[in-house]
């Protein structure tokens, strides 16, 4: 039976048997007992599946990962300890020293820094491209050693909407997978696999959790990319892994090759696993994701319309507005044309006016967070993106006056009233 996404939010992942807890339990244990050394040896050799150490796998984590995989329409998923870890693992799983990948330039500042600085120290180079450029222009960034193309469904914080089908065509024409960060849209509003993406990642800290209670990430594999078709590009998947006695992931695990390697190799060696308790909290958020996301979007639409008609506002960016350059693409890619609950805008005047406006908000909180049930606000040039130079800020699409306004699920009239009094103040 194929369930609708609302039902998957509530019931996917964990299926209790007779006499078992109806609510998903927390397996708060580092280790799992076996009766013989042979059983344990088979687990370490990947000859059998099972649990033996939570750094690799834990039942609570796997229940939640399974739910997220089903929400995205993938074959498998793993949870990570943060969205940053998910971004790193997704690329590092198929890139090594001497390799190269291409990324949209309009991505989250932390991810930009990870790709531009930290991964370069590991010998992996990234070329950034304008996501709105033509296919021919983006193609120029590819090299013989390019291993992936990366983008965000809705870029944080500039809110540009990625043409996933265009990016998928470019990636596949070059024999590499398309990796998409779907954090802002969530599978409620967009399922990138349906537009040709191969791997999806999330910062589950954001809408999936929705209550600012846990930090986490997820990687979902579509199972659609044919690694063997480009065998020599991805030898880490298509040729024997000596750390597992010569096991070859594509031969042993088929469509699950990529996500299995990320689990048994990267998680084994790097250990960015979330605690089972965090996975439990994440699951509580997932159960109401289908209810909260439409409310976020409904409120954001009204806030964007209010700002667009306010004489003190210089510009507003929200794809739900008919005046927005991404409106048509949003109607095509997103459920009911809804994107997310985040609106960006700038006030008439200098950067200091934006700061004074934020300091006068009462209901809305200044926090280093986004996509919370509570309305929150941030000035990226002063906060999340302050590590970038002015040139990098411009390349990432972050204007000095940009205010990132994450609209919560409160009564929208109260949110607008708070904006109004802060503007007057």
Count all strands and give the number: 12
Measured on Cα atoms, how large is the radius of gyration?
A: 22 Å
Oligomerization status of the protein chains: single chain
Q: DSSP strand (E) fraction?
A: 5-15%
Number of helices: 17
| Biggest sheet, spatial arrangement of strands | 1-7-6-5-4-2-3
Q: How would you sum up the global shape?
A: globular
Q: Unreliable segments (pLDDT under 50, ≥5 consecutive)?
A: none
Instruction: Assign the structural class, choosing from mainly alpha, mainly beta, alpha/beta, alpha+beta, or little secondary structure.
Output: alpha/beta
How much helical structure, as a percent, in the residues?
25-40%
| Element pattern in H and E | HHHEHEHEHEHEHEEHHHHHEHEHEEHEH
Mean pLDDT over all positions: 94
Biggest sheet features: 7 strands, mixed
Distance between the termini: 56 Å
Describe it.
The structure is a single chain. 38% of the residues lie in helices and 13% in strands. It has 425 residues and is α/β, with parallel strands linked by helices. A seven-stranded mixed beta sheet has the order 1-7-6-5-4-2-3, with helices on both faces. Strands 8-9-12-11-10 form a five-stranded mixed beta sheet, covered by helices on one side. Strand 2, helix 5 and strand 3 form a beta-alpha-beta unit. Helix 1 (5-11) runs antiparallel to helix 3 (59-72) and helix 3 (59-72) runs parallel beside helix 12. The mean pLDDT is 94.
């Amino acid at each position: 039976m194929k369930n609708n996404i609302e039902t998957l939010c509530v019931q996917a992942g964990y299926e209790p048997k007779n006499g078992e807890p109806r609510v998903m339990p927390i397996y708060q244990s580092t280790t799992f007992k076996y009766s013989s050394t042979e059983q344990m040896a088979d687990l370490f050799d990947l000859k059998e599946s099972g649990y033996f150490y939570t750094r690799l796998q834990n039942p609570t984590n796997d229940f939640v990962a399974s739910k997220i995989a089903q929400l995205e329409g993938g074959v498998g998923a793993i949870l990570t300890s943060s969205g940053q870890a998910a971004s790193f693992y997704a690329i590092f799983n198929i890139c090594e020293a001497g390799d190269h990948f291409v990324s949209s330039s309009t991505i989250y500042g932390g991810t930009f820094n990870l790709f531009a600085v930290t991964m370069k120290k590991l010998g992996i180079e990234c070329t950034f491209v304008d996501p709105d450029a033509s296919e021919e222009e983006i193609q120029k960034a590819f090299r013989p050693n390019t291993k992936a193309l990366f983008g965000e469904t809705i870029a944080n914080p500039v809110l540009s909407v990625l043409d996933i089908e265009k990016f998928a065509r470019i990636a596949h024409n070059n024999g590499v997978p398309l990796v998409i960060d779907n954090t802002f849209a969530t599978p409620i509003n967009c399922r990138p696999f349906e537009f040709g993406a191969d791997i999806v990642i999330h910062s589950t800290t954001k809408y999936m959790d929705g209550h600012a209670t846990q930090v986490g990430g997820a990687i979902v594999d579509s199972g659609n990319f044919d690694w063997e078709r480009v065998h020599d590009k991805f030898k880490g998947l298509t040729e024997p892994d000596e750390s597992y006695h010569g096991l070859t992931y594509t031969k042993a695990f088929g469509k699950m090759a990529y996500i299995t390697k990320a689990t048994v190799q990267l998680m084994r060696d790097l250990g960015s696993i979330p605690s089972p308790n965090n996975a439990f909290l994440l699951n509580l958020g997932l159960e109401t994701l289908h209810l909260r996301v439409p409310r976020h979007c409904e409120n954001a639409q009204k806030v964007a319309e209010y700002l667009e008609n306010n004489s003190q506002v210089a510009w507003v960016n929200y794809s739900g507005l008919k005046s927005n350059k991404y409106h048509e693409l949003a109607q095509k890619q997103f459920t009911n044309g809804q994107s997310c609950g985040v609106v960006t805008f700038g006030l008439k005047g200098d950067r200091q006016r934006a700061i004074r406006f934020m300091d006068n908000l009462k209901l809305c909180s200044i926090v280093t967070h986004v996509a919370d049930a509570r309305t929150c606000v941030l000035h990226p040039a002063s906060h999340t993106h302050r590590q970038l130079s002015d040139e990098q800020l411009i390349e990432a699409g972050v204007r000095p006056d940009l205010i990132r306004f994450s609209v919560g699920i409160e009564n929208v009239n109260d949110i607008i009233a708070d904006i109004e009094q802060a503007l007057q103040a």
